[in-house]
Amino acid sequence: MKDDGGSLGLFVRSLCGLDRRAAQQAFESFITGKQLSARQLDFITLIIDVVVRRGLIVVPDLYEAPFTDRAPNGPEDLFANEEIVALEVVFRDLQDRARPTALAA
What we know:
- This protein is mostly helical.
- The protein has 5 helices and no strands.
- The N and C termini lie close together (11 Å).
- The mean pLDDT is 87.
């Protein structure tokens, strides 16, 4: 059976989640060089916790519980638009890494 655009890899990732260390490394580029507040760090830690459990995350998830418990109006409560775009880049990278490469397919 052919993997339709990496959907099998995404499915497996959604079942197994992601190793905590790998999830933390994925967000290092977002955190490095920033002076994040305690609330922002708490929010990023929550994102990492969700990625560890679910394996993947998308920006719309940030407008639902448990994220709205910490930022009722969404990530805009804590981050500038360009930072939210940077988070989306990390989220996409996590998705891309779950898809098999041409060599593995």
